Amino acid sequence: MGILLQVRDLTIGATVYPPGEDPHDIEIVKDISFDLEKGRVIGLIGESGAGKSTIGLAALAYGRGGVRITGGEVLLDGKDILRYTKAGIRDIRGRHVCYVAQSAAAGFNPAMRLAEQVVEATVLHGVMGRAEALERARYLFGVLGLPDPDEFGTRYPHQVSGGQLQRAMTAMALCSRPDLIVFDEPTTALDVTTQIDVLAAIKHAIEETDTAAIYITHDLAVIAQISDDIMVLRHGDAVEYGTVQQIIEAPREDYTRQLISIRAEIRPEAPDQSDSLLRLENIDAEYGPAAKVLFDVSMHLPRGQTLAVVGESGSGKSTAARVITGLLPPTQGQVIFDGAPLPPALKDRTKDQLRELQMIYQMADTAMNPRQTVAEIIGRPLTFYFGLRGEERRHRVTELLDQIEMGDPFADRYPAELSGGEKQRVCIARALAAKPRLIICDEPTSALDPLVAEGVLKLLMDLQAETQVSYLFITHDIATVRAIADSVAVMYLGKVVRFGPKSKVLNPPFDDYTDLLLKSVPEMELGWLEQALASRKMAAAGN
Amino acid sequence: MSVFVFGYFTMLIAGSSLAVYYKRNEAFGVLFTVTLLSMLFGILWGQVAFWTISVIAVSLIAAGGLGYCFRAYMVMLLPEQASRFMKSAPLTASFGMLVIIVMIVLATFADVVAPFGEREIVGDVWEPAGGDYLLGTDNLGRDMFSRLVYGAQTTIAVALAAGILSFSIGMLLSFTAAVMGGWIDQVLSRFNDLLLAIPTLIFALVVLAALPQNIFVLVGVMAVIDQTRVFRLGRALAIDIVVQDFVEAARLRGEGWFWIIFREILPNVLTPLIAEFGLRFVFAILFLSTLSFLGLGIQPPEADWGGMVKDNKDGIIFLVPAALYPGAAIAILAVCVNMVVDWLLNRTASLKGGRG
Question: What angle is formed at CA A227 by the lines to CA A224 and CA A232, rounded to 5 degrees?
């Protein structure tokens, strides 16, 4: 096996324009070197801002807007493609090196049939004729496990599911028989049960076609299944570079160890779960008569504990939260809070009922008014519910900022001046300011990097111990459930399929769906993918 | 080839070369374009072209210098907070501010500033500028400069009042429609469509002909007509904001619509609305001028800039520039208002509260 791609001391820079300072150059990728042999896969892993996508795109001699490749070499078959002319680079892209983007939905032209788009680059480059390319596309659809390979290509992008679209994009990349494919987080936007299928399909296709690949992700468990070598990146530096086995089983650096050890159980399950604060009784809800979303949903949340509601997109878990908050009055059933039924509609609830039930959102960015300072954001519930003003209010804001481990200097900042984790902490402080008895957390950590999410989860648990607040925690991530929940409700297509204490729900005997869900969560273990696929009892929805 | 022309081109070419050498691309672009255009215009119109270009250039430099000094002056005079705000003003904005302030001062003290009365016939028809009459006389022999000063009073006041009123109505209605949704939104939006469907000018003409003719009715009619555009923009902007999580968070907190409109939505749509205000203000001046021109705006013999253009338009045929002075006043005010608005725009667009 010859070496296909050699990256030597790759350095990539960009110019930043911080307000109030002179523009200056920064290095976003520093002295990265790695080799890739034919038929092998290298995984690039790191948090957002680690430079992993930037490196991946450099393999296509491409820099995103404002990014410059300032040093080093990218040798493809021994030739430095960074020195190629524009025409030369164009010849490489789509023929020798292909790219699979994260969001397949945004990557396809909605007005063209899939097969047309899959073969377009191949035909354009003259690698093969149209008929031959279409034949290969059909073959690849089969290899990638798409339903009805002969007919699949005649569909439009909106007629197939997200997981299928992602596989179609992989087929597009494989079509011209490239030497190298760059996968940029191809499964990140997918549900776990879909992810496992796409992952298996990609792995199978890579083996079948003997292509080399760069696989970019932030999920170490995913990369462990698919790659031969792993490079761990942080702030543009290579932290560690080695084989999968070495990285997973004997990591040398602290940072890698942190990534691996993430999401151990933070707090054991509470033994007594009888004293319930919130109780949903036989809730049905719909968005108009044609869109029934919840069917006979019942669950309860014990006082001072955490109930995790877990399910895939479309399972109705966020709708359940809207019913509890009163944004969507149920068509049947009732919500009992602290022994008394809550008025179904928001406008009928008293100020005190509103105060006791607060919410934390997934996207902290849009959950805070960008024109208000942190002090205004946290201070408003204080004024609104408790009538605090002036010095008194300021004092309480400082207290709350200390509680979320941020401190007074943040009070006068605007949301745009905070990092992702800090934003979510401010949202938590805003919820806490109302002294609620229940906080509904709608995927508060799924938009955060793993280590930051870990910090936010720990904070939530500490606050629960301190203030006895209860959490209804909506998530799709089983690891998070394991880490923090006392009881768990598993939702599937608008129904609760399994509910009870964590120890019962997450341990066998399982129903079919919970079994599928749990087995689809990637584990940091070599060969997990094959085992999981072999032991599945049902196929994922929408595939 | 006179010494002037020789010096003119030497300076331009030397300037261009220096700009290139010091890598000032923008300055070079301007200078060299002027150089090339000068050659063209020189061939077409001779030396006059060079004089004109020089005069324009010197005026622009003077305006820039004036803006520079005015900014420094304000920074010196104003208290700490306001002076930091002022420091961020670009030259265009500070020059625009100066001009607007001068115009408002002139308008306010019109009785003192104007050498003659507003309606006083003091001389012959269309006397040339200079001598007793700074800008000559108009079609009835009234002093042009005095009327321009008095005209500023009505024009600025009416346009500003109509602009502010239309924005208040339009914003309030559109935000209410966006926040409330449902049938309230439908009623307000369809009524707005109804108003939009009627040609503006004809609507104004009919209503103004029917109602008593005074300045308050005029302002009211202009505001009602203009608010339809503000409503459209305001609703489109607000609807994007209303669906954001932070508005939902405010609703869940139990906030009333007043808080949601003024504290959650307004600060987030201020930027495009201020830009729109700059434009609308100018349109208000022009609309007022149109109405005056048609005889339904400010009633003669009271002066307003649009009406003055109408009164003196026939003079243009006889090379009498009287109509150009009020026209220029409108143009200068419009440009200056927009230069200031542009600066405010940059500040309100910043998500860091305009700091840094």
Answer: 70
